Amino acid sequence: METTRFLTGQFLLAMPGIGDPRFERSVIAMCSHDEDGALGIGVGHLLESISFHDVLKQLDIDPGAAPDVPMHYGGPVEPRRGFVLHSRDWGGGDTIDVAGRWSLSGTHDVLKAIAAGTGPTAWLPALGYAGWGAGQLDEEMTRHGWFTLPGDDALLFETEAEHRWEAGFAGAGIDPRLLATTTGNA
């Protein structure tokens, strides 16, 4: 199997003591990572101030068949921009296949399909994203801060947001309570 240094289709789990309160206990679904930079959608924290129906109403989309689920805090970049991570059984004009694991859409067509009951079978909405410039994430990965985990549909679509961080570490055989908040140098 060919290995790559890029993290598209994987998860980043924030290590205890990451040093940035915006990312404490974060779970980020990596949707794009190459030599030009990286983009991920946070799936470990929910926004309390806005729901999916609120977003649909702001966009003049009748919620129809869509359940009123919480919105995820996708990240600190463009916090008013919406995204939907979803199963690969639906695709629109802007849909991006993420390493054959899940899909990412960011236009109204996926919202309208969900509202009409014709959208993807599994999905979660988010506002904002986590972004890194060229080489920035690669450099961050050399320091204490992030743990990588292979992409897993069950973690993304079947695990409640508030449990994803612990479940991600547990799936890797790690008890996060035993992790140190700093690293040393040899």
Automatic annotation (TrEMBL):
Superkingdom of the organism of origin: Bacteria
SUPFAM superfamilies documented for this protein: VC0467-like
InterPro entries xref list: AlgH-like
Any coiled-coil regions, as ranges: none
Gene3D superfamilies documented for this protein: VC0467-like (3.40.1740.10)
Family membership noted in the UniProt record: Belongs to the UPF0301 (AlgH) family.
PANTHER family linked to this entry: UNCHARACTERIZED PROTEIN YQGE, UPF0301 PROTEIN YQGE
Name under which the protein is recorded: UPF0301 protein M9980_03500
Organism of origin: Sphingomonas donggukensis
Lineage start: Bacteria, Pseudomonadati, Pseudomonadota, Alphaproteobacteria, Sphingomonadales
